[in-house]
TrEMBL record:
Signal peptide: none annotated. It comes from the Bacteria. Gene3D superfamilies: 2-enoyl-CoA Hydratase, Chain A, domain 1, Lyase 2-enoyl-coa Hydratase, Chain A, domain 2. Transmembrane segments: none annotated. GO terms for molecular function: catalytic activity. Belongs to the enoyl-CoA hydratase/isomerase family. CDD domains: crotonase-like. Pfam families: ECH_1. The lineage of its organism: Bacteria, Bacillati, Actinomycetota, Actinomycetes, Mycobacteriales. This is Enoyl-CoA hydratase.
Length: 272
């Protein structure tokens, strides 16, 4: 994997760099609150796809440059000028672009930690909700303005919100366009934690440090089982857990965990 990937230097980019076992991915378009153009979305798909196959990675950090996380997909740029696309353009294109980003964040067998300052809007909000752990400043704002802008919700919002905060609050956000502060998002269970702006970096690094030194295979399998369990019966979930257990018990980290327990010391996991 290259150390840096540029989506579009003039109009915004997605950059990624390795920090030990952590891949730090930055949405870098601060002049537009890091709203995502087509090339940035394509860059995210490529980065996350590569990360999924990189055995040396143990965690992913997703963040925005500047004072905001992400103002969503740049619909203004996507609908400005040029010939009108033929009917069915969204149905053909979006499953391989914006939808694929959300699926990758939610399903990649690496823990994804998202840090949110300022605005997390539309697809930007759903990116944060799809992450395994999102830490936000108390004054951050989560907003799903789809209906307010005249179109129906997308990027996974109708799947993510009811599962995280229930149908009633999902309606408030999706049908009424209610803005939710970082503090309220944490109280609702929409995100993992809200902290003061000054504490955001430290709180994020604490999580990343824990995952970067954890049993990566077991964490990935647990993430997969949690996702599977949201649409499965108890019996199906038990079977899924059993296969995960079979795999994780064959790892070096499992053996290290047992040995550390016997020796009454902290384990030193290698992520394998």
């Amino acid at each position: 994997m290259s150390n840096e990937t540029d989506a579009d230097d003039a109009e915004g980019s997605v950059t990624a760099h390795r920090d030990g076992a952590v891949l730090r991915v930055t949405l870098d378009r601060p002049a537009r609150r890091n709203s995502l153009n087509h090339l940035m979305i394509d860059a995210l798909v490529d980065l996350l796809t590569d990360a999924a196959a990189d055995d040396s990675l143990r965690a992913i950090h997703l963040r925005g440059a500047g004072e905001d996380f992400c103002a969503g997909a740049d619909w203004v740029a996507a609908n400005s000028g040029g010939p009108r696309p033929r009917t069915g353009n969204l149905v053909r294109r979006i499953p391989h672009a914006a939808h694929r980003v959300i699926e990758l964040v939610a399903s990649i067998q690496l823990p994804v930690v998202c840090s949110v300052r300022g605005w997390a809007v539309g697809m930007g909000c759903n990116l944060a909700l799809a992450a395994d752990f999102t830490v936000a400043s108390t004054d951050a704002v989560f907003w799903e303005p789809f209906v307010d802008r005249g179109f129906s919700p997308d990027s996974g919002s109708t799947w993510l919100l009811p599962r995280l905060v229930g149908v009633a609050r999902a309606r408030r956000m999706l049908l009424l366009g209610e803005k939710v502060s970082g503090a309220d998002a944490a109280d609702w269970g929409l995100i993992h934690q809200a902290v003061s702006p000054a504490e955001l970096d430290d709180a994020t690094e604490m999580l990343l440090g824990r995952f970067a030194s954890g049993p990566t295979v077991a964490i990935g399998l647990a993430k997969q089982a949690l996702s599977f369990g949201q649409h499965a019966s108890l019996s199906q979930s038990l079977t899924q857990e059993l296969y995960g257990l079979e795999l994780s018990c064959r790892t070096t980290d499992f053996k290290e965990g047992l040995e550390a327990f016997r020796q009454r010391r902290a384990p030193k996991y290698e992520g394998r």
